[in-house]
Amino acid sequence: MNGRAAALAKAAQSYVGMPFCLHGRHPAGGFDCLGLILTALADVGIIAPPPPAYAMRNSTISPLFAFAEELGLVPGAAPFRAGDILLGRTGPAQFHCAIALGETDFIHAHAGLRRVVRTPGPFPWPLRRLWRLPPD
């Protein structure tokens, strides 16, 4: 198992219960899904440049694919592993990312519940991308 990936999953779990805030990047002010991932990555030593602009609904998300590559993330495939970064399509022009805890269960900033949550079970949205940290 990749030690940094396990640390990433653990870092994400430490933020469960923190408030949701669109474009949020800090526990005190809250997180959106990308902010949660960027903060957890920083916790394991991966400091990201500012992400490309995005909104709650996006006609294109291709800039995020290039951003993931800039961060050193590599494409992965199911089954999910702890520390995988998942990007799903939650609705028309709406995308959401999460950090897997394993084949089931994931951590994400839930806009509807207004906080970071651990969601049990399989990833509920059509998977658009899966990225992994490179091996240690």
Features:
136 residues; alpha+beta; endopeptidase fold (from Nostoc punctiforme); six-stranded antiparallel β-sheet; two-stranded antiparallel ribbon; 3 helices; 8 strands
Overview in brief:
Belongs to the peptidase C40 family. One of its GO terms (molecular function) is cysteine-type peptidase activity. This protein is an alpha+beta fold and 136 residues long.
Task: Give helix and strand order, one letter per element, not per position.
Answer: HEEHHEEEEEE
The tally of structural domains comes to 1
Question: Can you tell me the residue ranges where pLDDT is under 50 for at least 5 consecutive residues?
Answer: none
CATH architecture classification: Alpha-Beta Complex
Task: Describe the global form.
Answer: globular
Would you state the CATH class? Alpha Beta
Strand order of the largest sheet: 3-8-4-5-6-7
Would you kindly provide a written description of the structure presented here, covering whatever features stand out?
- This protein has helices spanning 3-13, 33-43, 62-70, and strands at residues 25-26, 30-31, 74-75, 85-91, 94-100, 106-110, 115-119, 127-132.
- With 136 residues, it is of the alpha+beta class.
- A hairpin with a 4-residue loop joins strand 6 (106-110) and strand 7.
- The longest helix has 11 residues, at 3-13.
- The N and C termini lie close together (9 Å).
